[in-house]
Amino acid sequence: MLKPKGMIKITAVAPKRYQSLIIEKLYSQKVLHIIEHSKSMGLDIGKPLQHSAILSETLVKIRSLLSYFKGKEFQQNAKDAKNTNAKDAKIKSENVVYEFKTKELHEEIIKLHEQIASEIKDYKDIEQEIKRRKIIASKAHTLKNLELDLELIGQYESLYHYIGYIESKEELTSSLKSVTQRMHVKISRVDGKHIISVFIDKEYKDKVYPVLEKHKFQSIDFSDLQNESQKDKDFEKLDLNKIQEKTIQFENKKEKLQQKLISVSKKHIHYLEHAEKFVVRELEKAEAPLKFASTEETFIVSGWVPEDKLERTLTSLQKITKDKIYIEIKKPGHHDNIPIQFNNPKPVKPFEFLMELFSIPKYTEIDPTFFMFLTFPLFFGFMLGDFGYGLITLIVFLLMKKFMPQFKAFFNILIFSSIATIFFGLIFGEFFGYEELAGFAIPHLLSRSKQIMDLLTLSLIIGAIHITLGLLIGFYNELMHHGFVKAFMEKISWILLEVAVIIGYFANVWAGVVVGAIAIILLGIGEGVKGLIEIPSIFSNILSYARLMALGVASVKLAEVINHYAGQMFASGTMGIVFGVILLIIGHVINIALGIMGPFLHSLRLHYVEFFTKFYSGGGTSYSPFGREAD
Fold it and tell me: Are 197 and 163 in contact (CB under 8 A)?
């Protein structure tokens, strides 16, 4: 339960003529965690199989098509398209069993990509043309509203013009006229924005601009409209109806091409998805030799195999090579980077997520996941500690787990934590912050609202027990790898320090001093100056568990405040009852949200910072067998 599955290192040497067969067998078994070879080890790195280049090109083409068909814009268009048989077609496609061959698939994908890519390019070109025409048409619409012809905005020897957007038109005309009376000003409103045109003598242009700038003037560039007018007389004449008619023609053409692409997508997307999975698998096999060592005639592959899968792996490799393979078996050494495969029972497995969030254990360490399973929900429940809150969060997390199955492990952790919250809610006798309902006191063992010092004492006792548990696990780790003496001096000396404080406080001060002195001497021998410097940390770590009390009291006090003000509103009449109910709902929702975030983060901290530092370093490598990731 607490140790990862046993691993055995194997090194296989075989003739290159068996390389493809061995790769295929190892891939299908999904047991070998390959150790990548590097040239620093003295031998060359292997070369990928011959068809890897074809597979790489095929994969690029497939993903290029899928990226378009699965793109947000295309998917929305596909949803909007009317096709009554779409669902049946999808089911039919999904039930097809595809059989692929690398060369034939490559040829099919290249042909399909050329055909579809050409149509996609045409579609995008039309789309860009429509956007371009709409921008130019908008500028034509602006000139039309300003009652200006396109030829009027050319270059003049004595005249200068400003045309653009302004933020407001208040007092703008009078301000401009104060510069010079010799000007033509027209202000119009287009698409909810103010547009202005100003024609003046060139000598006043530098004086007029600061006035416009005060009104946040933004000039409009008509060069694209002028260029378009040379090709299309409708733009020259600012004939908005004909411009719109031609734009609609482009949009109809786009619509037809869009429907064709949607139809092509429905026909090919499931084929492409299956083809992608096939090519990814084949490419992983083809590129596997890049992780091998290689000579002219042989190849060498090294890796880790779970102990219970070793015999089957060796037998299969010997069989397919007709015993023309040499396999060296080696048990893991202390300095080997051995991959980790978690070995926890089903209820504990969700908490592996919290380990991966921090760092997975090394092979030589005890896996702390089981201890996280025991204590994380308890800390969370202790801090939230309200029966009503626990029920609400339990229902919410059960629903979220159903609708977001990809986060199943995370919600399972929160479900356990909600159950612990309900448990502590019964101990504290709390229901949405109330300690009595309808005049009857809720039975409880400890009142968080009134027995704050007792709650603090309990929190520190929990901290001392948790820290001591971490030291005992650390003792076991050191005992297994460095012997009893080193383990005793490095870990038990800290426990003796805790015992010294307890003896000094509850029994005899001098006896506590003697035990403490012994603990400090052992600690100095075991961990040196570093250990002596860190002596205060053991007590600060324990004090850190006071947050169990602090967050719990903060939560219940906030609930009491919400209930108090809601109660006052209830006493003020009908409207008071309405607002009181609203206050209760909003207030408790906020308190629950805070009660989820705070306890979750602080429970993590108590484990990662206070608990793990007593025995755990992490930094392990996750077991990733060849062939598993592509599935």
Answer: yes
Distance CA 55, CA 629 (A): 18
List, for residues 389-427, the tens digit of each pLDDT value: 999 999 999 999 999 988 999 999 999 999 999 999 999
Same domain? 353 vs 420: yes
Write out the two tokens for 533. Answer: 């410097």
**Are 227 and 178 spatial neighbours (Cβ–Cβ below 8 Å)?**
no
Which segments of 429-534 does DSSP mark as H helices, in order? 452-482, 484-487, 493-506, 509-533
The C-alpha atoms of residue 287 and residue 442 are separated, in whole angstroms, by 67
Q: Is the separation of the CB atoms in 372 and 49 below 8 Å?
A: no
CA 578, 581, 582, 587: dihedral to nearest 10 degrees? 150
User: Does 462 lie in the same domain as 596?
Assistant: yes
Q: What is the pLDDT of residues 80-105, one digit of tens each?
A: 544 434 444 444 445 566 778 888 99
Q: How far apart are CA 467 and CA 538, in angstroms?
A: 8
Q: Which domain holds residue 301?
A: 7-49+287-340
Instruction: Please tell me whether residue 146 adopts helix, strand or coil conformation.
Output: coil
The number of residues making up the chain comes to 631
Comparing CA positions, the residue from 336, 316, 363 lying closest to residue 35 is 336
Residue 214 domain-assigned?
A: yes
Give 20: exposed, middle or buried? Use CB within 10 Å, 0-12, 13-18, 19+. middle
DSSP string, 263-318: HHHHHHHHHHHHHHHHHHHHHHHHTGGGGSEE-SSEEEEEEEEEGGGHHHHHHHHH
Amino acid present at 318: Q
Q: Which tens digit of pLDDT belongs to each residue from 169-189?
A: 888 888 888 888 888 889 998
